[in-house]
Automatic annotation (TrEMBL):
Species, as recorded: Hymenobacter endophyticus
Pfam family, one: HTH_18
Name of protein: Helix-turn-helix domain-containing protein
Keywords: DNA-binding, Transcription, Transcription regulation
Top-rank taxon: Bacteria
InterPro entries named among the record's database cross-references: Homeodomain-like_sf, HTH-like, HTH_AraC
Signal sequence coordinates: none
Length: 292
C-alpha cells in the first residue's frame, strides 16, 4: 500500500526548539502532541529506515533500507511511504545553534544543504550502526543538565555532517521529473512558505520573479517560461494574487494599520501598497477594511 507525501519526522512536539536551537527525537516514538508548522524553519538531519520515494527539490529518489537525509528551510521535500512507517532518529536545529562557534560559510552553501545537491545517503549496516549511535548519544544528552550539553550536541551534529561529507550521495537512485513541472512546483512551494505574515515587521524576503529565480539558482526567464507553461499564468501574476490574498486576510483579521500591512507585504511606502491593492481589487485597502 502506498501513502503519498508523508513526512515521517513531522509528528514531534518541538515547542522549545526556538529557545534551545535544537531538538533531537526518535521517529515513531511517542513524543507528545504534534506541532504543525506553517513553514519549515529549521535545518534537519534524519536517520531513517524504510521503503519510500523522497521528493527533494527537483528529484524523486527511490530508497529501500537505511538512509541519512539533510534538509533545510528553503528546499521543499516530501515522502511517499511504501509499506511500514519509518523508524529512526531526527535532529532539528537552527543555523545559529550549530555555527555558534564557527565563522565559516553559511549552511546554505554547504554541499549537504545547498540547492542543486542530493543530500541523501544510502547507508551500509556498519554506517547505519555508527550514526545511529551518535543519534542515541544526542538523545540521551538532551535530557541531562550537563552545563556544556549544547556544545556536546553541537559536536555530535558536526560529526554526523562530516561522516556524510565522506560518503557519496544517492545519485544512482535519482529520477528527474519534467523540468517545467518541477521548477513550477518549487516556485509555488516557496511562494506559499512566505505566508502567513505573522508580524508587521516581517517583510517578505522574496517579492519578485527575479528574487525567486535567485533562490532557485535558475535564470528568471527559465522560471517564467516554466510557470507559464504549466499554469497558464505568469510568475508575477502568481505572486500578486498571493500577496492580494494575504492583504485581504490581514485587513480583515488584524488591527494593523494599512502602512504596517503594506510594509509586511514588501511595500516600502503605504502609497505603493494602496496603488497595488486598488489595481488588483478596485478598492483601496481602507475601503476594503470598512466594507468587510
Amino acid at each position: 500500500m502506498t501513502t503519498p507525501y508523508v513526512d515521517p519526522c513531522a509528528d514531534t512536539n518541538i515547542n522549545d526548539l526556538k529557545l534551545t536551537g535544537f531538538k533531537v527525537y526518535e521517529v515513531g516514538a511517542p513524543v507528545g502532541p504534534a506541532l504543525v508548522f506553517r513553514r519549515r524553519d529549521f535545518y534537519k538531519v534524519s536517520l531513517l529506515t524504510g521503503r519510500c520515494t523522497i521528493y527533494y527539490a527537483d528529484k524523486a529518489i527511490e530508497l529501500d533500507g537505511t538512509y541519512l537525509l539533510f534538509t533545510n528551510p528553503h528546499i521543499p521535500y516530501s515522502f511517499e511511504n511504501h509499506g511500514e512507517p519509518h523508524s529512526g532518529y531526527a535532529c532539528l536545529f537552527t543555523e545559529e545553534f550549530v555555527k555558534a562557534t564557527d565563522r565559516s560559510e553559511s549552511l546554505q552553501q554547504s554541499p549537504l544543504f545547498k540547492i542543486g545537491g542530493t543530500p541523501i545517503f544510502q547507508l551500509s549496516e556498519e554506517q547505519a550502526s555508527y550514526i545511529s549511535g551518535i543519534f542515541r548519544k544526542m538523545l540521551a544528552e538532551q535530557g541531562t543538565d550537563y552545563l556544556f550539553r549544547h556544545d556536546l550536541i553541537r559536536t555530535y551534529i558536526q560529526l554526523v555532517i562530516h561522516e556524510a561529507l565522506r560518503m557519496q550521495p544517492a545519485e544512482n537512485f535519482v529520477k528527474h521529473q519534467n523540468a517545467a513541472a518541477r521548477i513550477t512546483a518549487l516556485f509555488l512551494e516557496l511562494l506559499e512558505r512566505l505566508f502567513p505574515v505573522e508580524s508587521p515587521e516581517q517583510a517578505l524576503p522574496l517579492k519578485t520573479a527575479q528574487d525567486f529565480a535567485n533562490r532557485l539558482s535558475i535564470h528568471v526567464n527559465h522560471l517564467n517560461r516554466a510557470v507559464k507553461e504549466v499554469t497558464g499564468k505568469s510568475t508575477t501574476a502568481h505572486i500578486a494574487e498571493r500577496v492580494v490574498g494575504e492583504a485581504k486576510a490581514l485587513l480583515h483579521h488584524t488591527d494593523w494599520d494599512v502602512a504596517a500591512i503594506g510594509y509586511g507585504l514588501g511595500f516600502e511606502y503605504a502609497s505603493y501598497f494602496n496603488n497595488f491593492f486598488k489595481k488588483h481589487t478596485g478598492s483601496t485597502p481602507l475601503a476594503f477594511r470598512r466594507a468587510v
